[in-house]
Amino acid sequence: MLRPERMSKVSVAGSRGVMPTVIEAIYGLNLVHLSDYDGSWEGFDNGNPIEGADNASEKLVTVRALESTLDLSADEAEPGTLEDDWEGRIEDIRNRVNELDDTRSEAREELRQVEEKIGRVAPFAELGIDLDLLSGYESVDVVVGDGPREQLEAAVADSEEIRAFELFTGGDIVAIVAAPTEDAGSTPIDDALVGVEFTRHPVPETEQTPGAYVEELEERKRELEYEIEDIDAELEEIKHREAGFLLRVEEELTVEVQRAEAPLQFATTDRAFIAEGWIPSDEYERLVAALNDAVGDSVEIEELERASYNRHGQIHTEDIQQGAPAAADDEDDAASEDGQQQKAVTDGGSTVTMDDQPPTVQNNPSGVKSFEVLVQAVNRPKYSELDPTVFLFLTFPLFFGFMIGDVGYGIMYMAIGYYMYSQFDSPGVSSLGGVAMWAGAFTIVFGIIYGEIFGLHVLGEVLWHDTLGVDLFPFNKGLEPAAADFALGWMVISVLAGIVHLNIGYILDFVEHLSHGVKDALFHSGSWILMLNGIWIWIFSLQAEASKPDFLFTTFASDGPFPIGFTGFPEWGLVTIPLPLLGDFLLTAPLLVFLIGLVMLGVSEPIELIESLDVVVNVFSYTRMGAVLLAKAGMAFVVNLLFFGGYQDPDGAFHFLRNHDPSYVAEHYGEGAEVIFGGLMHSGTAGLLGGLVILVVGHIVVLVLGVTSAGLQAVRLEYVEFFNKFYEGGGENYEPFGHDRTYGED
Predict the structure, then answer these.
(1) How many Cα atoms occupy the beta-carbon half-sphere of 295 within 13 Å?
(2) Are 526 and 593 in contact (CB under 8 A)?
């Protein structure tokens, strides 16, 4: 979907007496996106909820509270039914659930207190001294806690306020009994332990021994845990027995509340009402038929306008002429200019429509639909905009796959994506799973092109050479010294991808501006297209070749990494311009195109001239893709090197020691080759086991960082570089007034 579904603004006006029937009919259609009346019409106010709304809302709150207490979700229930006494049944369930929940809360609180007591008494049980021996003395001071015994003993021994002391220990617990001097303070032991890490335990108040007290507390703890388990089991039984009923009641009450509160969006008087909303244009006749069946001629139904497209300024609409609207429009325009309230016409003319924009319906094909979540993360498209979802679908997985390019990682991404897509009910998580599957599929495709599986070139050797006998593939990622040209080549590929991507953005902007006329589109969007392509064709041209990087002309040369025979565009000279101090400058066709675009931009949007260099800067942003490609490949390379080891042969080519140990290098190549690292797999059993851990954990880290680096960079290029050229967002979702019943029948 590029353009949203065509929408029509409709008005329904009638007497207050038929309003409930009209609401019920519209609700049943689940079709009209209601507009909110803002109170601007003279003589009209927002309506009040229909009688019974408060009662229904209270019951709905009760039912949802019960569902929360029972931890009830929609996928745990079969459709239920409603009997005549359903309100009494709800009250019985509420009383029993609240009683059980209160009892459970009390038991949990007591259990918390018991556990705290056990925590306080357990150290004394470990110490093995009766509690009555640890307090109640006048001539000695007793402190119990845990800390380093040696430091505690030294601190107490050095205290001038303690004349004698004794330490008792049990496990990590220390009891200090000290006799203070006559001139000592009230807390001589505490004063002595200042600066020592010591946690003091207050002595529990009980006549029992610590062990017996702990045993008694443990028994009470078990009783409370059993009690809580019994309550949980009974609540679970109630949930399974009443789930369908509760969900059915919630649905019914939700419908009742939505219907009852609908007048809040209407413009009303004591005798009449006006409701407006948006519907798909081809559904207008169905709306008219349904309302005529419900109330006959008691309401006036009018199609006010049909929305069309205008990305800038007001949305253009096609007025639907009915009655005598011209006079009413003139009167309302005059009232608006005078700052007066607008008047709603209900005598056969057209009403002054409520000021809102059409909602947006995103209706993309199933394969593309998952990418709507990425568009909505920025903002839903306005009704007047092109929906960029399909372009995100075409480019995001492509960018991601280009940056990771590994069959092994691609399979993992697809598996994770499928799990998210199939196992989660959340539309957002499910959509992200769909995105992950597409990203994983393109990662596999590029992995085949690169010939890599988990960072190893095994696939390239087997597929392209041994099986197909093709010399062009696989491409090298450029980490090896002998293949360094590929590293620069991927940067050039990234730049070209940026040029194509930005051209698409500017072309979409051009299409959007056509609603203002061809001239506006040419001068605004066309200027950027001319500047972008003019400057980059010049950069890749042979003019001033000596001052440009060689890889611009060697990347696609016949002996380059991508041998298609391109060595640069010709100069296409037009005129020589003498420049003071700089000598003669040859104005070529690409630069002329750039200058024409610059002039056109200055004529249409002079202030945007300061951003004219964006046609260069924005393209450079796409080199992030090449950088991430090299970074992720480098991480996988290091992980494999640590495990397998590797060597460089006399020709400068790198090889992993997958099938040989390090001694093979000297035996096979002599002194012409160099072992870079022997590999943990060749370092004995301990090295092999440690290497396996590094291999697995390392590739998991690369897999995760692939999402945070390649994923985020691809998203950034889409949002910042691409969307900024043509997309604003800020649309309202199409949410028709109605309800799709799940747990009952109308």
Answers:
(1) 23
(2) no
460: helix, strand or coil: helix
The DSSP secondary-structure symbol of 196 reads S
CA distance 566 to 554: 8
CA distance 396 to 374: 10
pLDDT on residue 397:
96
What's the token pair of residue 312? 């800038």
CA distances from 93 to 71, 88, 315, 425, 633 (A): 14, 9, 53, 28, 61
Instruction: Determine how many CB atoms are found less than 10 A away from the CB of residue 220.
Output: 15
What pLDDT is attached to residue 668?
83
CB atoms within 10 A of CB 37: 24
What is the reported pLDDT for 263?
Answer: 92
Handedness of CA 419, 420, 422, 423 (dihedral sign): positive
The 10 Å Cβ neighbour count of residue 593 is 19
Query: Can you give the pTM of this predicted structure?
Result: 0.73
Q: Given strand 654-656, what is the order of strands in its sheet? A: 654-656, 646-648, 674-677
Q: Tell me what pLDDT residue 702 has.
A: 94
Closest Cα to residue 652, out of 629, 679, 672, 626?
672
Distance CA 6, CA 3 (A): 8
H/E stretch holding 440: helix 427-450
Cα–Cα separations (whole angstroms), residue 389 to 88, 307, 318, 722: 50, 21, 27, 12
Amino acid at residue number 284 = Y
The residue with tokens 């001294």 is 129
Give the span between the Cα atoms of 50 and 46, in whole angstroms. Answer: 12
Could you give the CA distance from residue 417 to residue 411 in angstroms, rounded to a whole number? 10
Helix axes 623-644, 684-706, angle to 10 degrees: 170
Contact 307, 317 (CB under 8 A): yes
**Beta-bridge partners for 583:** 579
Are 527 and 598 spatial neighbours (Cβ–Cβ below 8 Å)? yes
Give me the DSSP letters along 228-264. Answer: HHHHHHHHHHHHHHHHHHHHHHHHHHHHHHHHHHGGG
Q: Report the candidate in 585, 584, 613, 586 with the shortest Cα–Cα distance to residue 597.
A: 613
Beta strands in 135-207 (DSSP E): 141-146, 162-170, 173-180, 199-200
Distance in angstroms (rounded) separating the CA atoms of residues 703 and 412 = 8
DSSP assignment of 93-149: HHHHHHHHHHHHHHHHHHHHHHHHHHHHHHHHHHHT--GGGGS--SSSEEEEEES-H
CB-based contact 275:47 (threshold 8 Å):
no
Handedness of CA 265, 268, 273, 274 (dihedral sign): negative
Both tokens of 390, joined, read: 């399909």
Residue 689: phi and psi, rounded to 5, are -65, -45
Q: Which of 133, 190, 184 is nearest to 156 (CA)?
A: 190
**Average pLDDT per 10 consecutive residues for the chain, totaling 746 residues:** 73 92 92 90 89 88 91 73 82 93 94 85 70 68 81 85 82 80 82 82 71 86 94 93 87 89 92 92 91 90 77 49 39 39 43 73 87 89 86 95 95 96 89 95 93 85 62 75 86 96 93 81 91 94 89 90 90 71 71 91 88 92 94 93 90 84 84 87 91 95 92 93 88 84 49
**What is the C-alpha to C-alpha distance for residues 505 and 520, in angstroms, rounded to an integer?**
17
Separation of alpha carbons 471 and 321, rounded Å: 69
Q: What is the largest CA-CA distance in the chain?
A: 110
| Distance, CA of 427 to CA of 736 (rounded, Å) | 19
Whole-angstrom Cα distance, residue 381 to residue 376? 8
Q: Please, which residues bridge with residue 704 across strands?
A: none
d(CA 510, CA 517) in angstroms, rounded, equals: 10
- Give the integer Cα–Cα distance in Å for 650 and 482: 11
CA Rg, the chain, in Å? 39
